[in-house]
Write a structure and sequence with these properties.
Belongs to the methylamine corrinoid protein family. This is Methyltransferase cognate corrinoid protein. The protein is an alpha/beta fold and 210 residues long. The protein folds into 2 domains: 77 residues, Methionine synthase domain (Methyltransferase, Methionine Synthase (B12-binding Domains), Chain A, domain 1), CATH 1.10.1240; 120 residues, Cobalamin-binding domain (Rossmann fold, 3-Layer(aba) Sandwich). The chain is 58% helix and 10% strand. It has a 5-stranded parallel sheet with strand order 2-1-3-4-5, with helices on both faces. The longest helix has 23 residues. The radius of gyration is 17 Å and the shape is globular. Bound molecules: CO-5-methoxybenzimidazolylcobamide. CO-5-methoxybenzimidazolylcobamide binds next to helix 3, helix 4, helix 5, strand 3 and strand 4.
Length: 210
C-alpha cells in the first residue's frame, strides 16, 4: 500500500494520530503538500461520504474522520501558506446558515490564502446578516459561500437578496460552492460564479477580480 493509500485508509478509520504521523512522514519525504491533500486526505473523505450515504457509517464515525482530516490539513497548511505574499485582495468566506460542514470551506480558504488573498473566515452557520455585516466592515472584492446540504443551499439566495436590499450587490462579487451546488443553481440565484473545488475557486476569484 502506498503512503497516500494508507493516509486515505487512516482518514476512513478516523485514526487521528495515524493521520498526523503519515502526513508528517509524507512531508518529511518531500511530497508536494497539494498532492498530500488531493491524493491522500480527500480520497479518504470521499469514501467516508459514500459509506455515510449508504448507511454503512454513522455520524460519530464521520466526525472522527473529519477530525482526522482537520489534523492532517493543519500540518499541511503552513507549507502551502509559507512565504510572504502581498495581498491580492480581501475575500470573506463562510458556510451558510444552518450548515456546520467546514472541511471544504476551510480547504477553499487555504487555497485562496495561498493564492495571495486576505481571508476573513466567518466560520459555519453564517446567516445573510453576518455576510452583509462583513461586507460593510471589510469591503472585500469577493464573498464566498459554501453549503453541503440541499436544505441550506437556499440560504445563498437569501444572502444575495439581502446584499441587493442593502445596495451592496454591485460592490462585491459572489461565488458559491459545495457538494450540492451547480453552475445552473449559481445562475438561478444570480451569483457571479460557481467553483466545483478549491483550486477552481482560486482561479475563479482571479478571473472575477482581474
Ligand atoms: Co454531513 N452530510 N451531515 N457531516 N457530511 C453530507 C454533506 C451528505 C452528502 C452525506 C450523505 O448523506 N451522503 C449529507 C447531505 C445530504 C443532502 O443534503 N442531500 C449530510 C448530512 C445529511 C448530514 C446531517 C444532516 C447528518 C445528521 O445529523 N443526520 C448533519 C447536518 C449537520 C449540519 O450541517 N447542520 C451532518 C453532519 C456532518 C458531520 C458534523 C458529522 C461532518 C461535518 C464535519 C465538518 O465539516 N467539520 C459531516 C461530513 C464530514 C459529511 C461528508 C461525509 C463529507 C463532507 C466533506 O467534508 N467532504 C458529506 C458527504 C459528501 O460530501 N460526499 C456529508 C470533503 C470536502 C473536502 O469536500 O465539502 O464537498 P466538500 O468541499 C469541496 C467542494 O465541494 C468545494 O471545494 C471543496 C474542496 O475541493 N467547495 C467549494 C466547498 N465549498 C466551496 C465553496 C466555494 C467553492 C468550492 O466557494 C466559496
Amino acid at each position: 500500500m502506498s503512503n497516500f493509500e494508507e493516509l486515505s485508509q487512516s482518514i476512513i478509520s478516523g485514526q487521528l494520530d495515524r493521520v498526523k504521523s503519515l502526513t508528517q512522514q509524507a512531508i518529511s519525504a518531500g511530497s508536494n503538500p497539494v498532492d498530500i491533500i488531493n491524493q491522500g486526505l480527500i480520497p479518504g473523505m470521499s469514501v467516508v461520504g459514500a459509506r455515510f450515504k449508504a448507511g454503512k457509517m454513522y455520524v460519530p464515525e464521520v466526525l472522527m474522520s473529519a477530525r482526522a482530516m482537520d489534523a492532517g490539513m493543519e500540518l499541511v497548511k503552513p507549507l502551502i501558506l509559507s512565504g510572504e505574499i502581498p495581498s491580492a485582495g480581501k475575500i470573506v468566506i463562510g458556510t451558510v446558515k444552518g450548515d456546520l460542514h467546514d472541511i471544504g470551506k476551510n480547504l477553499v480558504s487555504m487555497m485562496l490564502e495561498s493564492a495571495g488573498y486576505t481571508i476573513i473566515n466567518l466560520g459555519v452557520d453564517a446567516g445573510p446578516e453576518k455576510f452583509v455585516q462583513a461586507v460593510k466592515e471589510h469591503q472585500p472584492g469577493v464573498i464566498g459561500m459554501s453549503a453541503l446540504l440541499t436544505t441550506t443551499m437556499l440560504a445563498m439566495k437569501d444572502t444575495i437578496e439581502l446584499l441587493k436590499e442593502e445596495g451592496l450587490r454591485d460592490k462585491v462579487k459572489v461565488i458559491i460552492g459545495g457538494a450540492p451546488i451547480s453552475q445552473d443553481f449559481s445562475d438561478e440565484i444570480g451569483a457571479d460564479g460557481f467553483a466545483p473545488d478549491a483550486g477552481s475557486a482560486a482561479d475563479l476569484c482571479k478571473k472575477l477580480l482581474a
